[in-house]
Amino acid sequence: MNTVLQTKGLCKTYIVNKRQNNVLKNIDLTISEGEMVAIMGPSGSGKSTLLYCVSGMDRVTAGEVIFNGKETARLSDKSLSQLRLDEMGFIFQQMYMMKNLSVLDNIILPAVKSKRNTESRKATEERGRQLMRRLGIGDVGDNDINEVSGGQLQRACICRSMINSPKMIFADEPTGALNRSSSDEVMNELLSLNRDGTTIMCVTHDPKVAAKCSRILYIMDGGIMGEKEMGHFNGGDKELRDRERELNNWLMEQGW
Ligand SMILES: Nc1ncnc2c1ncn2[C@@H]1O[C@H](COP(=O)(O)OP(=O)(O)O)[C@@H](O)[C@H]1O
Ligand SMILES: [Mg+2]
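YS: structure for the whole thing
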């Protein structure tokens, strides 16, 4: 399998009030095309920081991040934001959307902004509507973002993350603000995108979410303290229960 993302000796240090906080220390990580990787670990262990560093939302203090063959530290801010726009998709716990745009206009915004996109506005809108139908929110495109439920809004965020057909989606607690059934729906959508070939990295503190991922990384004290290869989840309640049990046992061994 091709490597999509690799880090070598990734370090991230924050300095607050002259005090150094070495949040990530020498992280070596390789993610192959088609993987669905969950990042777990205690609160404050650096999960979000890792996601931001590997996705070029934040600069690393030392080390390398190679995304799709490009060393991101060597890119200018402008090239890096272009790379993010064209080849990465983002989903967050807080569903950031522009309040003055409709749901559909929010979804297609990354395509409208991308220099790579040469299609007409109409064609982009049609693609946006197709994605919305696929995620079961086909009828709320013209709504304001405050006229849809949390689960619908998060599915709209998934549509937005997909609009430029990214190589990889980065999700930071994508189900953190959702109830169980919306969380399951959102995870099932991410699984289906993953089955279609999109590589996914997902920070989560929810073992039910992580149990659907193909590999789990456990972060603590600035490093990857544990790693569990689960294989792809093929669906089915029994398989899911077995995976959850296996994962919970493993998490306990990690000191979760
Ligand atoms: N922008 C920042 N400036 C300074 N310290 C930060 C910043 N972001 C995160 N941190 C610190 O880095 C550590 C890891 O934070 P974070 O990556 O958000 O953890 P997690 O997502 O695992 O809960 C925490 O100690 C946090 O206070
Ligand atoms: Mg976090």
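YS: worth flagging: The radius of gyration is 18 Å.
IM: good catch. Also The chain has a mean pLDDT of 95.
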